[in-house]
Amino acid sequence: MDYSHYKTASAIPEAASMIETFRAIGYSIEAAVADVIDNSISATAKNVYVNFEWKGVQTWLSIKDDGHGMNNDELIQAMRPGSQNPLADRSVSDLGRFGLGLKTASFSQCRKLSVISKRENQETVFWTWDLDFVNQTGKWDLINYLPDSEKFEAEISELKSGTIVIWNDIDRVVKNFRSDDDRALEKFLFIMEQVKKHLAMVFHRFIETGKIKIYFQDRLVEAWNPFLTSETATQGFPAEPLHNGKVTIKGYVLPHKSKITEEVFKNAEGPKGWNEQQGFYIYRNERLLLAGDWLGMFRKEEHYKLARIGIDLPNSLDAEWQIDIKKSVARPPLVLREQLKAYAGQVRNQAVAVYRHRGKNVRQLPGQKFVPLWVEHKRGDRWFYKINRDHSVIEEIRKQAETEPGRAISLLLRFIEETVPAKAIYIKEAEEPEAMGKPFEATNQEPIREAMSQIYVKLVNEGKSEEIAKAIILNIEPFNHFPHFLEFLD
Length: 490
Ligand SMILES: Nc1ncnc2c1ncn2[C@@H]1O[C@H](COP(=O)(O)OP(=O)(O)OP(=O)(O)O)[C@@H](O)[C@H]1O
Ligand SMILES: [Mg+2]
Fold this sequence. Notes:
Blueprint: H1 15-22, H2 29-42, E1 47-53, E2 60-65, H3 72-79, H4 101-109, E3 112-118, E4 125-130, H5 131-137, H6 149-157, E5 162-168, H7 182-202, H8 204-208, E6 213-216, E7 219-220, E8 235-236, E9 240-242, E10 247-253, H9 262-268, E11 279-284, E12 287-293, E13 307-313, H10 334-360, E14 374-379, E15 382-387, H11 392-403, H12 405-419, H13 422-431, H14 446-461, H15 466-474
Parallel strand pairs: 1-6, 11-13
Antiparallel strand pairs: 1-2, 2-5, 3-4, 3-5, 6-7, 8-10, 9-10, 10-13, 11-12, 14-15
Helix pairs in contact: 1-5, 2-4, 2-7, 11-12, 14-15
Bound molecules: adenosine-5'-triphosphate and magnesium ion.
Adenosine-5'-triphosphate (ATP) binds near residues 35, 65, 70, 78 and 84.
């Protein structure tokens, strides 16, 4: 198209409204902090320090790194929304994509974003985005201001090179709280604890390999590995290459609760809890993007909670996997969905087996076989649950019935009521809906007819009309399933 034929008009984004819009991208505070740390890792930092100080409305949070830092021009460029083109190729270890994260993550949480930075042997520089100032002037202008400048200048002077990102007016998490509001403080500390857990998860591979140390209020953050690879009872599935070998998938079935210590079990539940953490874990350049999500392929259910599956992507597939600005969404390309689903199906089956096997068993003595009271069995294509006739309780009750039939029957009924295998039935129903048999389906139905006619005779002997006796019987379970037997009653 030849643009020279056309008149043009300038339509520069309106600064005040545009920058407020950045606030609405929908970051959680933990995702926002992680996005800032991405930049530290891309800048080859070895240490990252997350610090904060509770001061009510004036609470601040800082993220410091000892990466290569920036000079004045680079910092101004970094502060620009859209500082890099998303279509540009990135180095294989770069965690960025859109040239937005620093700004959008920060503005999602605070109204003042300050950055102070230093390249080795160069002078220290700082700039601040202040949303109130942008609102006043309507201009995309940074101000050369640094809050608490003595403190942060002193901190950066201790580094050869590095960067500190500082958030002030953290209005999303800290509203108009006073510094002596203890309940607000408690809530704030709880949120910070969530942030710490999130970082331990998102960057666990970097922490495990010693590429980076993250300090949270001066305490070293320990990696949280979703796959419990250090436990011998964890079952790893073979890794499979996908997408011409650019993507790798590897599934794990975590150990049953009884095979690990209580502490390990508690820790393995992760930031969101056992049930929530099942599913795919998508890593992009070793950084976890998505933690525990079945990508719309399956529902999260209690009995699949031991299944966790890692997927590894390079950043060259960002567009195909629809990576979002927040680095918290990824969607597999359609062509891969079936493969992922098939692989996940195998892992899920094994996860159910582990969950169930132990779920059904009581602690075993060595060399002794577990004796179930209920056994699963199949008639035709339907599943039923049957009482194990050889069970020692049943044997005892049978003996008792010879002398005290009333008590024996009560005891039997109690045992049945208390031990109905609800969990196993629930799992079966979820796995194969409609596969449960109906009473007396596909088997000899003589006992039903016999019981029906005994009750019928009793009702008629009591003076009920034949019509009424039949109506009563049809309201009794399980006779309601067998209306066609009524005709044999006369
Ligand atoms: N801690 C840091 N140390 C060195 N350079 C940094 C640091 N933080 C940001 N930068 C520079 O600023 C640029 C912009 O960062 P920003 O997070 O906004 O975008 P990005 O990382 O390029 O992409 P994305 O939007 O995907 O995060 C980075 O590309 C990097 O060059
Ligand atoms: Mg970034």
